[in-house]
Design brief:
The protein has 88 residues and is mainly α. It has three helices and no strands. It has a domain at 39-84. 49% of the residues lie in helices and 0% in strands. Helix 2 packs antiparallel against helix 3. The longest helix has 23 residues, at 62-84. The protein starts with 23 loop residues before the first helix and ends with a helix. One of its GO terms (biological process) is mitochondrial respiratory chain complex assembly. Residues 1-20 are annotated as: Disordered.
């Protein structure tokens, strides 16, 4: 059996808009300590809806997973920046 190289992965999509609501930072400061707030709720819902529609075939929803992952990454970076600046 000859060894073949796997095909290269598809290019990673770029997401320009940050979907955090404009008033999220204010709400985040006023929230109770134990209350969870998700700025990427719309991406999370889209990925779950995709799974439901496609009978939980993850390969068909990769785009939505990437979008959710990128949103979470951007939000974590923003929270770190705000904490370093003493604003959060």
């Amino acid at each position: 059996m000859p060894l073949t190289k796997p095909p290269p992965p598809p290019p990673k999509p770029t997401f320009d808009e940050f979907s955090t609501p404009a008033d999220f930072e204010e709400k985040f400061r006023k929230k109770e300590t134990t209350k969870y707030m998700n700025p990427c709720a719309s991406e999370e819902k889209q990925s779950m809806k995709c799974l439901d529609v496609n009978n939980y075939d993850k390969s068909k929803c990769e785009y939505f997973f990437l979008q959710y992952r990128e949103c979470k990454k951007k939000w974590q970076e923003e929270r770190r920046r705000l904490r370093r600046a003493g604003q959060l």
